[in-house]
Known about the structure:
By secondary structure, the protein is of the alpha+beta class. The chain folds into 2 domains: 160 residues, Beta-lactamase, CATH 3.40.710; 133 residues, Orthogonal Bundle (Probable Glutaminase Ybgj, Chain: A, domain 2), CATH 1.10.1500. Helix content is 46%, strand content 12%. The protein has a 5-stranded antiparallel beta sheet with strand order 2-1-10-9-8. A 3-stranded antiparallel beta sheet has the order 3-5-4. Helix 2 crosses helix 3, helix 5 crosses helix 8 and helix 11 packs across helix 12. The longest helix is centred in the middle third of the chain and has 16 residues. The protein is globular and about 55 Å long. Bound molecules: glutamic acid (GLU).
Amino acid sequence: MQCQSQPELEQLVAEARGYARLGKAADYIPALQKVDPELLSVSLFYPDGCHFTAGDGNQKLTLQSISKVITLALAIMDRGAEYVFERVGQEPTGDPFNSIAKLETINPSKPLNPMINAGALAITSMIKGNSIKERLDRILDFIHDLTGNSAVSYNAEVASSEFETSHLNRALCYFMKQSKVINEDVEELMELYSKQCSIEMDCLALAEMGCVFAMDGFNTETEKQVMPRDVARICKTFMITCGMYNASGEFAINVGIPAKSGVSGGIMAAVPGKCGIGVFGAALDEKGNSLAGLKLLEMMSRKYSLSMF
Ligand code: GLU
């Protein structure tokens, strides 16, 4: 079963919208406070190019943690899976995304997975290039291949807001530098990571990226294999096991789709072989997931039988 019309989707958005009032936008990155937390938008993108957008559709969002899936794919392409997973683990943590606790208690300070901040920072440090600019351009080029849109860039205001306030992320980096998981200058890595997290697009572009993962790395619009099938498989597996922070188990039960959320309130979902979904609603629950976005995905999963399980 698939979505047949935009009014159908508008109806679901209208039902989910009210949940936003129960949460609030992230405030630890000051620039993220500037959006209206009650806005909610969703896009669906199918492999044949058919797409639907509903709600406050033309809103732009920054990727935040959604970018972790993108850099993971690029790091595996740059370094190979063996190199990557010698340094970053493959297990869910059950801890908040920015927790430092396991870095100290797990020997030898190997971050548990690429979807928590510690693991994502280590992954970003693996992206090849001779300068921060070249590495950021490589991330952006990959995103241009995923979205088929070469205009996608980063939001400089959000990037500098994060760069100036990322004390905890810096602490994670220094911890990992001590144990040689990270070997580069921490300020440079923070600059690259803040810019990567601030890459900005609308829900439709998010859905298009989701569709490439859903189609095993093949962009059906540009007819280009953007990443090897196996890389897409690894990314989708992490999206299932740790993509929705420490609510990933509950999400797997209630929605059952590989998905990755970010503290901006965005969610990118990849329904294997079927479609990509992009959602944006800035009001978050206590775990960092978009409250109305989660509800909307739950309703869509039930209505269109999207669960893999
Ligand atoms: N830029 C954010 C941070 O590192 C991303 C976190 C997230 O979206 O979960 O704090």
